[in-house]
């Protein structure tokens, strides 16, 4: 308790009305946007979902953005916390505000409109609104160029597996948005959010493409083991050798590299070389 009080006092004494110089970011997309705006030098800490750019992974971590510890954030003496609207717990963010730390919760829905809003909010908070406009224009152009590439119309599912139990992406997720923009048909479009899905369940869905995050491939023991799993092995995706490993943040975070994510999927050979009827 004494340590916590000391941290609070130190933060309060160090705050000023000047532009933020010590920023903590909560959420992988939030962190990536800050760096894309050329403001990465102001970031003094981030969370475990901040996987890109590499510089962000070298900073002090404050845990996972959905369960941030108050003391861990205060120890970094931030004058601004940029948080995904999904960050929490709410009490921690409230306490930070109460001790004088500016907390800005930014839009974080799986949509292009939300991405545009998020970039604008972060750029404004960092005092670089014109850079925000420039970044969004670049992102929008790259997304459109990627969308203009031929679409396969193949059925697909996106999986992540960090704890031994695969979860699959349904509607209202960043993963679903990326599948749609890449011209793929999510076989779980009627499902909301992420839910557990067994290998047998995947087999029953019979997707022609399986997209899986890089970390999930490692957790599963490698790509060849995935191809041999009962259930997965029976899918059209496995028969077509179309289990596609993808950077975690590209697959799960709607960020500045959205156009790159769309292009990556569309240009993967087992997807690219199929033409819609």
UniProtKB/TrEMBL annotation:
Top-level taxon: Bacteria
Domain Fe/B12 periplasmic-binding: 22-277
Entries under InterPro entries matching the protein: ABC_Transporter_SBP (IPR050902), ABC_transptr_periplasmic_BD (IPR002491)
Transmembrane segments: none
Pfam family, one: Peripla_BP_2
Signal peptide span: 1-19
Keywords of this entry: Signal
Record protein name field: Hemin ABC transporter, substrate-binding protein
Annotated source species: Bordetella avium (strain 197N)
